[in-house]
Structure formats: C-alpha cells, structure tokens
Amino acid sequence: MQKTIFFCFTALALLACKTETKKEPIVVNYPETAKVDTIDTYFGTEVQDPFRWLEDDRSPETEAWVKKQNETTFGYLENIPYRNDLKKRLEKLWNYEKLSAPFKEGDYTYFYKNNGLQNQYVVYRKKGDAEAEVFLDPNTFSEDGTTSLAGLEFTKDGSLAAYLISEGGSDWRKAIVMNAETKEIVEDTLIDIKFSSISWKGNDGFYYSSYDKPKGSELSAKTDQHKVYYHKLGTPQSQDELIYGGIPTEKHRYVGASVTEDEKYLVISASISTSGNKLFIRDLEDPNGLLIPVVDDTESDNYIIENVGSKLYIVTNRNAPNQKIVTVDAKNPSTENWEDFIPETENVLSPNMGGGYFFTEYMVDAISKVFQYDYEGNLVREVQLPGVGSASGFGGKKDEKEFYFSFTNYNTPSSSYKYNVDTGEYEQYWKPEIDFNPNDYKSKQVFYASKDGTKIPMIITHKKGIELNGKNPTILYGYGGFNVSLTPSFSIVNAVWMEQGGVYAVPNLRGGGEYGKKWHNAGIKTKKQNVFDDFIAAAEYLIDNQYTSKEYLAIRGGSNGGLLVGATMTQRPDLMQVALPAVGVMDMLRYHTFTAGAGWAYDYGTSEESEEMFNYLKGYSPVHNVKEGTAYPATLVTTGDHDDRVVPAHSFKFAAELQEKQAGDNPTLIRIETNAGHGAGTPVSKTIEQYADIFGFTLFNMGFEELPNQSVLKEFKE
C-alpha cells in the first residue's frame, strides 16, 4: 500500500501551505511494506502481526526495507532549508575541549579527554608533573569511529589493564588485556562478553559475565542465562572457570561479579529482572571458600559498598523504599542479622565511598544534596554544592584524601571540582570553555497534578525573557520507568534547541526512582498507565500556562521513553504537533522474546503470564494501537540497525503501522542509523547529524520557514 504526503520547499513554503496557496509540492511515497498472515492467540484472543517478518534482522527483505525507508526519510530531510545550518551550529557548539575527572591507578593519573569533535574520548595519563600522554585512543579502533571503548579496569597496583570494546553499538563486548606501563597487549581477545564489567583478582586474572552465544541472530535472539567466569591470564578463554550460573538453580538473566577493594571477598549479584537481586560472597583468602548467601531472594535491591575486614556495609531498599545502609558480619550475613548504619530518610539515598568516608547523595525533588559520614555513622558535614542541580562522583580509593566531583544542571555545563575529605573544602578543577552563556537561561521547577491528583515535579528551562504566548517551540522529554531518575544535566543539543527560543521541559514521572521504590512501583505493570497520564498532564500544563500550544509541542523519549512517546501519541494524537520516539519498546506483546527483554518483566509484565496482563499490555502497546483513519502528529521514529537491547523491529513495525494507517498530511518517517546500537558509544559525528535531523524535522513541522533565532545563525555563519 502506498500513501503520499506533501511538503513545500520554497522560501515561503510554510506560509503558502498554511494559507493553502498551491506551490509545487515534493511528493513523498512511503515504501510499500508487505503484510503476512501471522496470527498469535493469547487466552483465546487472536492478534494479527502482519509485519512479523521485519523481526528478522538478517533477511535480505528487511535489509531492502531499511534501505528504502532511509531513502524516503533522507529525501524528506534534505529539503528542510535549515537542516545544514543546525548541523553547523551543533558542530560549533560541540567543538570545545572536554575533560573527565582524573583518577589514580598505580603511579599514574588518568583522565578522559575529547578535543572537541573527536568521535570517541581518548584516555590520557601523566606521572607526577610530566606531560600527559595518550594511553588508549578508541578513535583508532575503526575507520568510521563506530567501535568504542566500553570499559576500562586496572589491577589494584595499576600494572595491568583490561578494556572492553563495542563494535557498531552492540551490547556484546570483547576484552583486551594490556601491560599498563608499556602499553603492550598482553592478551587479545576475549569474546562474547555482555552486560558485564571486569573485576580483577590480584594480577592473576579477572571475573566477567557472559551468555552462551544465542542460536540465530546475536542481535535479536533471546539471552536469558547469564554466567560468571574467571579468566586466568595466560590461558585460553575456553578454559575459563565457571563460577556461577551454569546449573538450573543458578539460572538468572543478569549476573555480575566484583571483588572488594581489599581483595578479600568476591561478591556475586544475581537477578531475574531489572529490579531485585540475590547477593552472595566468597572469602577469597580461603582456598576452599564457598559462596555464602547474604540475600537469598530477589525481593529487594542490594549491593556491598564497603567492608572493613569481615564487617560488610550493604546498601539496600529491603524494608526501606528510599534505601539505607546496613552492616553485618560476613561470617553470618543473612538479613535477620542486619543493623542500620545510615537509616532510611524521606529522600532517596545514592551513596558512594572515598577517602575513608561515606558520601550520601539524596534526591530532594530530583535535586542533589550531599552529606559526609565517618565509619561510625556520624555526620561530618553537609557538602555545600556550587548551585542547584546534580552532583556526581564523590568517590575514590580509601587512602586518597582528595578526589573529584562534578556538578551540572540544565543550563550549566558540567564542571569538575577537587574535594578535600578532611576539610570539606573544594576548588574548581576544570570548567569548559563553551560558546554558551548560562546566565541567558533560566530553569524553574513546577509541580502539577496528574489525572489521579498525584503531584508531579517538572523542570522547565528556556531563554530568559521569552513571552508566554503559546507559540514557543517546546520539547517535552520523559522516561518514567526502571527506577531511573531524571536529574538536571547540561546537554549541548538542548542548548542549541534553547538558543533557538525553544523550551525544554522534563517531568519526573512515576515509574522512575526520584521518590524511591514506591514511586517506581506506582508506574509498573497494571499501573503503567499512570506514567502516560503523568506525561499527558505535563503537556497539558505547558499548554494551559502558555509555554506552548499543540501546534508547537513535540514529545520525545528513548528506549522505555520511546514507549512513553508511542503510547502517548496513540492515546492523545491531538495533543502534540510532533512525536519523536527513539529506540522505543513498541511491541508490548513480544518484547520479552528478544535478547534480554524478558528481564524487563518487573516493570512491564508479559503477555503470557495472565489474561489480565495480556489485555492490559494490548491496551497500550503502540504497535497494536495505531488506528486506521487517525491523524497522528508528524513523527520521526529513530533507531539503530545494531540495537541489540531494544531490537529495531519494535521501531520498524511501529513505523509500518503508522505509514499504513495515518490520515492527513503529517509525515510518519523512520530514520535508521546503520552500524549503530542503542546509543552508547555512538560517534560524535553521527550524533550531530542525528540531532540536526531531529530538530530540523521538529521545527519544520511546527511551521518554521527559517530558524527562529536568526542572530545565532548569522554569528556562526560569519
């Protein structure tokens, strides 16, 4: 089936379109998407899945479909008059030196640095006052910059390093071991590592996690039995010792291993979903030591943050939805022996360790507050942060008396500070030199009522002095799931949006972690509609208060946030002008059959667990709720052909449904990044191109014939 949309491209294009003065249109024909007779039956209900064939990411037919869709989409985008101007502005603003906070390993101080437009950050190091040198440059891993550094771990003495690489954005990793002093490769290469870090045991070897290679496509086939291995240096990977996960009673979807800083204990965490984990320890000083259960169920989230000898310090939300720290002796570590160390408060706790102190970050309405405690649980001080926003870091080795933290908010680029643990004093270590003046912008936190009356916080950021006349181009961004908290942080792409007069609004929806486990649980399974209602109410608040109007509102989100956009636009297509779902979970009846998707069941439930859950999921699943003859907003679906977390079939099927059933002239396009995954490690060049397309598409479909802020345009053209 072919449908046609039109858009104008002359100097007065959009004015002409709006006044219905006919100009020569560009005709865009959607590629025909074949339909197959595929039907699933759930609890006696038949569900058609005509685009099932798009799930086969290896087929020539899917490859041809992707190529045709991209030709159509880029044919449209190329005719947006200011698309290239946005790209140039993004490049100019992006082109400043960026540094990470330093960290010490052995005799060297390491840091990450990007000169400006490098596709990947480079790892540098220096010894004492000597000049810094390149230690590891991921830009040399591949010609197109799509192979990225995905992890770097040193031995305790800093003499050896193991680093992980990701190819084409895939979650599958390879590990390479090098002599940190000489930078010579010691071992090349361990393969098939996934959802794993590296944790060294002395200088002899390290622990890592992997799945058995799936049958069929490694980008989409199901992976659900995670295993921990120990790799001894100098031996082939085929001889690696299986530590946990190899028998039916140890079957879990996510298993991780770490070694405590004093190298006394091996810690194993095992989960069946993205929430809740079992916890085990093994005494590495005992050659016959067994794994001892600390927590033997998955009813809570738990991890060991520190130990002093056999005294364990555990962060947990067990009977404490906002988290607390408890202590217990490793000889008898079960939960009935736990004692509160830093009790739960009304705010969510996110602790860290450094310099022989505990640093507790609390979220107060999504804003950071940080306190310092000693090993007796005594409050040393509140850290007076540089402003209102998000702090991160506050961690280091136990014997280091200085470490670094970062601070940012929506209109302040992230800066690094050196902190003295004994005095509590800090000084700015690094501040970016960026062509952006934070003083020209303002952020305001508001609270609005959702459909059921629940108060939801939202931070709205924009240029000072804008008129609240309902005509400001606005992006409403959300996530609302998996206990993830959206806290204020600066983004170059959002800066470009705001300097064009755009409003950027971020609500803290239920399903997230901003108010602890109760807030998370208020947006899962049969309460998932709360999340969509919260997002819809945010849009209505922005419209009612004249920040924007339907004609100037875009909604955006990625991954679980892509689901949020897909559900919102199918439930309330009248509410926004533009929808921007990125790498979204769009088929809620089949998501659990791909890669590690079954692990998301804590948040979503599955279509197979009960008739009630099936009906609930079918009731909001974006793929199953696109209705014939409905006028949907202008939609640009984005995904990557190597996304093996939320497989691109979700986006493919959603785009196919929209293209078949859309009424009206709003375009429904899909932009498929090739040789790219879920987002992590994406080269800077690809990111800039993608956002130039997203912002160009958004402004064009809001009716802008030229960029709203031409003064910025003139400045960077000059």
Automatic annotation (TrEMBL):
Q: Name one GO biological process term.
A: proteolysis
EC code(s) of this entry: 3.4.21.26
List all membrane-crossing ranges: none
Q: Name one GO cellular component term.
A: cytosol
Keyword check for Hydrolase: yes
Q: Where is the Peptidase S9A N-terminal domain?
A: 31-429
The UniProt catalytic activity note for this protein reads: Hydrolysis of Pro-|-Xaa >> Ala-|-Xaa in oligopeptides
- Location of this chain's protein in the cell: Periplasm
**Pfam families named in the record:** Peptidase_S9, Peptidase_S9_N
Identify the keywords attached in UniProt to this record, alphabetized.
Hydrolase, Periplasm, Protease, Serine protease, Signal
Molecular function (GO) terms for this protein are: oligopeptidase activity; serine-type endopeptidase activity
Name of the top EC class for this enzyme: hydrolase
Principal cellular location given in the protein's record: periplasm
Q: What does this protein do?
A: Cleaves peptide bonds on the C-terminal side of prolyl residues within peptides that are up to approximately 30 amino acids long. Has an absolute requirement for an X-Pro bond in the trans configuration immediately preceding the Pro-Y scissible bond.
Q: What is the name of this protein?
A: prolyl oligopeptidase
